[in-house]
Amino acid sequence: MRCFFNGTVLTSLLPPMLATQFVLGILGNGVALWIFCFHVKPWKSSTVLLFNLAVADFLLIVVLPFRASYYNSGLNWMFGKTMCNICLFMLQLNRSGSSFFLMAIALDRYMRVVHPHHSINHLSIGKSACGAGILWVLTVSMTAHVMTLQHTNTTYCESFMIDTSVKQTVSWHTFVFIFSFWVPFLVILYCTVRIIGHLRGRQLAQHGKIKKALCFITVVFVLFSICFLPSNITQMLIWAKTHQAVSTLPEDQVCSALDNITTIFYSTIILTYLNSALDPVVYYFSSPVFKNFFRRTLRLPQTDATESSEKKTRESGSQSLSQL
Questions:
Q1: How many other CB atoms sit within 10 Å of the CB of residue 131?
Q2: What is the DSSP string of 260-294?
Q3: How many CB atoms lie within 10 A of CB 43?
Q4: pLDDT tens profile 272-286
Q5: Does the predicted TM-score (pTM) go above 0.90?
Q6: How many secondary structure helices (H) and strands (E) does the chain include?
């Protein structure tokens, strides 16, 4: 038996949140893609990773209006089963893709700062593109099952449904959701700690600009945690509580026992979409091209020559950090 949760709270809370995320995300990532395509020259291996991150974020953001309509109409999906699966696939695919590309960017910064002479830091654009392609193939293969989901209730369009008949295992969909967070999370945490430790060990952290870069790395990690950690912890709690409820309660009481925590989960999963709306901040700090573009747009002073000179002298430090 599948549980259909009470979405009264969600139908009033989520539509305005999704609409806000859509506006911020479509503008931020749209502008970022335009800058990548027409203003960032020449490209580097890190540029390839950032561009693919922007693509993943943009593709996730474009389906948010469908989710907003779904919640605004009281959990009533009006676009057909095929479109439901397409939207759910796009959300899962690009949520996972965004996490994996953030992980790759963190690894790239780690290698350039901590191991600046390693050969991997000199990959060609073609090889970097192949690496990005491998990440996309991995992500698609992990999330393709969403296209085959069967919806017993035609008004519901959800990929995370509690099935009280499953007692012993975690579903593949839940595993992918958890795996695509915890692996990038641990890698980003490791890279961040090692970069900070390396620069402090070389006494670079005393410089004002380095302090700002170190602070930014911490903010990136904190934002990633805020956006993804709550929903993953809640999903793990749902699995544990479902196992307990199925084992101890009559079948007709299991769903009601899980209603509150399910509502919390659907509220926290909205934060994963927020990550895609906030990633343009990463692009802004990734390159002077982005900073100068927005400075020109807002008619602010451009980056001066002195700052550029200082940046070159600290290439293995502040420049590598500012690209995270």
A1: 17
A2: HHHHHHHHHTHHHHHHHHHTHHHHHHH-HHHHHHH
A3: 14
A4: 999 999 888 878 777
A5: no
A6: 13, 2
